[in-house]
Design a protein that fits this description.
The chain has 12 helices and 9 strands. It is of the alpha/beta class. Strands 1, 2, 3, 4, 5, 6, 7, 8 and 9 form a 9-stranded mixed β-sheet that branches. Helix 5 packs antiparallel against helix 7, helix 10 runs antiparallel to helix 11 and helix 11 runs antiparallel to helix 12. The radius of gyration is 20 Å and the shape is globular.
Length: about 325
């Protein structure tokens, strides 16, 4: 069964404390025909030393080093250029994948290709996220249950402004840390946009969806994600990247009268996160005046879930204290 070579790609930046765990989980996969490539994006801690020690003497693994920091999208493009495998699976430098992850994802992808005839397929693993305060959140995979598999422009609509179809299961979205696809699929849409330091995974998925891509997932939990802080993970950086993503798709969004919606919803979310309630109210009113039904549905679908998530975060934190 393990005939196709799978490239496991790890992007690394200042991850000296976690990269060994990620590499160990990559090398422990039960899919035997693998190569493991680690791209260090010009770390200034001891990440390179940690990687060299972790892969010393192992012919399955190799390190590629950037001579300057280029960001996660560029590191992933380097992985795609270096990959010899038919498939590429992305692992994060602070996550841990279970031994059956590659086998599970390849099998799901091949089964779906055989049944559907689709040629552009992205497969996502289900997992869990561990927060520093002890809270654990499940991360179900997109397309892992329900009716039809999400595909085409309809999935782009969900990622850009949350238009949902009742017969599609969207799971936890499209995180690259859970992604496996054929190299040809990545190449078909031009890889990752190196101008984006955040949401480059969403951008890739939007372009794949608009190219007719299909999104499937495993129903088995296959990785553990550890929530960590970084400069590029700030709310401000995330807002900036999300709005740049909207600008990239301005023509499409204007053609379906959703440009204002897609541009201002991330700002609404940012105002809530920063407790800027007066500005939140102004943004909300502006959205409601333009899209009363869509905004009401969006708030009802996501608001209670978001508040519950924040409450669990606070409870877990108080229990630790």
């Amino acid at each position: 069964m393990d005939k196709s070579l799978v490239t496991i790609g790890l992007t690394c930046f200042n991850a000296e404390d976690t990269i060994n765990r990620a590499i160990r989980s990559a090398l422990s996969q039960d899919w035997t025909n693998i190569e493991v490539i680690i791209v260090d994006d010009f770390s200034f801690d001891d990440s390179v030393l940690a990687v060299e020690q972790a892969i010393a003497g192992n012919p399955l693994a190799r390190l590629v080093r950037h001579s300057q920091n280029k960001g996660p999208a560029a590191a992933r493009n380097t992985l795609l250029q270096e990959a010899r495998g038919e498939f590429v699976a992305f692992f994060d430098d602070d996550d841990e994948s279970l031994p059956g992850r590659i086998t599970g994802q390849v099998n799901i992808l091949l089964d779906y290709e055989g049944q559907s005839g689709a040629t552009l397929v992205a497969c996502y693993a289900e997992g869990v996220r561990h927060y520093p305060n002890g809270y654990v959140m499940e991360l179900p995979a997109i397309g892992s249950c329900g009716g039809r598999v999400p595909n085409g422009p309809g999935l782009a609509d969900y990622l850009l402004f949350y238009r949902k179809r009742p017969d599609w299961f969207y799971g936890s979205g499209v995180p690259t840390c859970a992604l496996l696809a054929r190299v040809s699929t990545f190449c078909a849409v031009g890889g990752f946009d190196e101008e984006l330091r955040r949401v480059e995974d969403v951008d890739f998925s939007i372009r794949l969806a608009l190219s007719g891509g299909h999104f499937v997932g495993t129903s088995e939990s296959l990785f553990v994600q550890y929530d960590t802080d970084a400069v590029d993970k700030s709310p401000e950086k995330n807002l900036e990247a999300e709005q740049r993503l909207v600008e990239k798709n301005k023509d499409y969004l204007r053609s379906i009268n959703r440009y204002y919606y897609a541009l201002h919803w991330p700002l609404l979310r940012y105002r809530h996160f920063k407790h800027q309630y007066w500005h939140f109210t102004i943004e909300l009113l502006g959205l409601l005046l333009r899209y009363p039904l869509a905004v009401t549905k969006h708030l009802w679908a996501t608001g209670p879930q978001r508040l519950l998530h924040e409450r669990k975060m606070a409870q877990s934190k108080s229990e630790i204290i």
